[in-house]
Amino acid sequence: MATPELLQRLEKRALIAEQLIDVLRNEVAELKKASESLGHSQLEAENEQLKQEVEEWKSRLVQLELSHGKTQVPLPAKNGRMTTAYLASVPPQTPPVEKPPTSEGATQDGDIASDNKGKKKEKKAKPATESKEKAGGKGAVTVEEPPVDVGRLDLRVGRIMTAKRHPDADALYVEEVDVGEDKPRTVVSGLVKFVPLEAMQNRLAVLLCNLKPAKMRGVTSEAMVMCASSPDKVEILDPPECSQPGDEIHVEGYPRVPDPVLNPKKKIFETVAPDLKTDMEGVATYKGSPFTVPGKGVVKAFTLFGVNVK
């Protein structure tokens, strides 16, 4: 038979177990709430980013329309304010010019004949006008997408302010980089095997700033450090010493029209990357044209010549 002491112990343990179960239930409920809140905030952030992209493309549309002589017509929006729709301008129709009668004795039959001719011309012109109206009313004007080249990349000078080892990945650094914006960007780079940690601190670099943010072992990376790369060596590209964070990288012959965010499905960077190389003097190039910071100089690798840039 169980002794009273043993029964007391069992009762105490049962009570403690019930308390632990209650605590765990509360923690699980809190975790569920926290995860739901996090998911909601992520959706809001994505929606805000999409809105910014829409506004960016709208502004590009305005510029293209104005450069091609298209008119801008303000239309009332749902909220009562005025919005702007961009419609293709239709050439004005020239009104028919009436010929003066050749003499006072112009007959009524001649007038009727001229009226009939005018009506026939109007009927012939009508289908063309209607087709233009139908085409204009179907939807927005198609915006021609810029060519896929280095001009679509948002390459900027940045300063790596701090760098540290990734807490969950031995081969990765986590950097805070000033790219000329209100706050620094977090960047994750796989450079541990090639660049010492002390060489990552407070240095200039070239950043690709319009990649879609992506998580790397739990840390969201908001840009990419551009490097000259060979199979056994990697070097961070060096902009001119007088460069400042936010300075834009230009390539002659390729107008700089970067996408707000590169669409991964279009594989723009993957298409451009094979033509990004250093020349035999270490200058970073696209199809042989150098990366430059206007008025300040070219972007170079220290020792890697004739290798890929990525």
Automatic annotation (TrEMBL):
Domain of life: Eukaryota
Residues annotated as signal peptide: none
UniProt-annotated location(s): Cytoplasm
Stretches of the chain forming a coiled coil according to its record: 7-67
Basic and acidic residues composition-biased segments: 125-136
GO CC terms: cytoplasm
GO biological process, one term: translation
Cross-referenced CDD domains: tRNA_bind_EMAP-II_like
Segments of this protein annotated with the region Disordered: 88-142
One MF term in the entry's GO annotations: tRNA binding
Pfam families membership: tRNA_bind
Domain called TRNA-binding: residue spans: 149-250
Gene3D superfamilies: 1.20.5.340, Nucleic acid-binding proteins
Keywords: Coiled coil, Cytoplasm, Protein biosynthesis, RNA-binding, tRNA-binding
Main localisation: cytoplasm
InterPro entries on file: NA-bd_OB-fold (IPR012340), tRNA-bd_dom (IPR002547), Tyrosine-tRNA_ligase_regulator (IPR051270)
Protein name, entry field: tRNA-binding domain-containing protein
